[in-house]
Amino acid sequence: MVEPLVKKAYETEKKAASSYTDGLALVRGQGLRYTKVEEVVGRIAVDTIIHKHLMKAILDAQKELEKLVGEGPISEVKEIELSPEQRALVKRFAEMHLEIEKDMIETYQKMAEKMTHPLFKGLAEALVENEKEHHRILAELIAKYKE
């Protein structure tokens, strides 16, 4: 289970972020403003704050996913014949979400172009690829139930 590791990472990053923030203030208070020392400590402080928030977001997502998934992944996926009404429902659902996925692809692409921090840029680029995969899967679902 990954959750204990994420909790540990979050707690460690939280302590580190506080320490780096305090250290940055100390560095500046010692007359080292606008120096290489401030730049290095500041850069690590920024990254650590980002890490802390990413770990918190992962923890929050895991809690929400536990409610959605319940006991875990589906052990057996059954292929069944759908009624015309079920086929229409699945197709409408997929088409509606295909538009949402298209919008998210465009949004994350724009974010990736505008992001300057490498962590944010990389995350936005990874989200673009994830949304493209969603788009592909939904398009396959629509093609399967287009009749």
Automatic annotation (TrEMBL):
Residues 7-141 form the Rubrerythrin diiron-binding domain. GO terms for molecular function: metal ion binding; oxidoreductase activity. It comes from the Archaea. Pfam families: Rubrerythrin (PF02915). This is Rubrerythrin family protein. It comes from Thermococcus barossii.
